[in-house]
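Quiz preparation item.
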């Protein structure tokens, strides 16, 4: 059995992916100037880094919980722990935008996109259903991926039960989910399923999450694959620089391949350029950065440019300011809000359990 005590490369990819998503979304704030338009045109493929999150999440969840969700009590504890991780910050950022919507309603603020704050979308947001029935990209719109993740978490005990009988069945589930998405795309005439977000994003996540699970379950075989020196760093750099020229489906396959290369070197215990650069040390900030980058942009870039009456070219100076504020906010959120509240909610659940069982300490890997 190969060692899986470390996921340094997957962790490193997570924070890189979060940074790429920030670049993608922040570029859109500057599309009125040539630099912004250039970035928007050449970073559209960064949205597929969310699918990398799904693959890594599938691996980490299987690593933490495979074989430990065999009855109602353990399934309930698993789902609660996942909610305790993702829901508080989702609720906090949603509250920020609900407050902003109230300010818009009473004329205390103004916006060029009032359709972003429909009260009719709040039930889906509160119930984490907005990757199924979201009206559009609303409120803190990156949170659609939380809804998709929760869908995968709900299915995880079933998939784990199937995999306990035959591990290779998870590969079939990856293929079936991808084929079902493709058939629906063809029959309904929708956009490529790799672009599904508020309507269908949950089904977009399934192949990636199951692929991550399959990588964990078959990690011994993956670790024995021939290792090509530099393949992970080269493929990641090639995707970042050249990915905008790829068709969406090919770009998605490239993301899956990058994730599997990271799994391979982690399971084989190899050192690479990525691990030597120690990107993994910042991985606990991935979720905070992902969830806070749009609220920070709203305050720093949107409100800041209006307050200072900046021209489109002048407001470019707010981009590095927003990134610095985001980094600081992410650290503060993780240390003073997310982690303490998560521990409190986890401990409260365990205390109320009918038959309390020793609960493992919250690990660094569960920060996915």
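Solution:
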């Amino acid at each position: 059995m190969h060692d899986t005590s470390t996921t340094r490369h997957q962790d490193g990819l997570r924070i890189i992916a979060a940074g790429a998503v920030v670049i993608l979304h922040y570029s859109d704030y500057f599309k009125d100037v040539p630099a912004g338009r250039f970035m928007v045109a050449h970073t559209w493929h960064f949205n597929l880094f969310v699918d990398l999150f799904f693959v890594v999440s599938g691996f980490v969840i299987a690593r933490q919980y495979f074989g430990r969700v065999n009855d109602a009590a353990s399934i309930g504890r698993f789902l609660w722990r996942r909610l305790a991780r993702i829901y508080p910050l989702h609720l906090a950022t949603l509250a920020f935008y609900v407050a902003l919507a109230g300010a818009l309603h009473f004329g205390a603020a103004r916006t060029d996109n009032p359709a972003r704050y429909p009260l009719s979308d709040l039930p889906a947001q509160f119930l984490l259903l907005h990757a199924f029935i979201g009206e559009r990209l609303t409120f803190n719109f990156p949170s659609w991926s939380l809804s998709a993740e929760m869908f995968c978490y709900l299915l995880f005990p079933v998939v784990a039960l199937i995999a306990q009988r035959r591990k290779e069945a998870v590969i079939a589930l990856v293929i079936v989910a991808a084929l079902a998405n493709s058939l629906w795309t063809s029959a309904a005439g929708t956009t490529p399923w790799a672009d599904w977000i508020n309507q269908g994003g949950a089904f977009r996540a399934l192949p990636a999450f199951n692929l991550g699970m399959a990588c964990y379950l078959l990690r011994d075989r993956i670790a024995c694959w021939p290792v090509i020196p530099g393949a992970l760093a080269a493929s990641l750099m090639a995707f970042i620089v050249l990915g905008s020229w790829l068709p969406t489906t090919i770009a998605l396959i490239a993301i899956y391949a990058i994730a599997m290369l990271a799994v391979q070197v982690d399971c084989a215990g190899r050192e690479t350029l990525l691990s030597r650069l120690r990107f993994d040390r910042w991985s606990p900030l991935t979720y905070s950065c992902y969830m806070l980058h749009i609220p920070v942009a709203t305050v720093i870039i949107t409100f800041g440019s209006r307050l200072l009456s900046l021209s489109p070219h002048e407001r470019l100076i707010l981009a590095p300011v927003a990134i610095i504020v985001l980094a600081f906010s992410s650290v503060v959120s993780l240390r003073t809000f997310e982690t303490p509240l998560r521990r409190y909610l986890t401990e409260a659940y365990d205390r109320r359990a009918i038959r309390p069982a020793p609960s493992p300490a919250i690990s660094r890997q569960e920060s996915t």
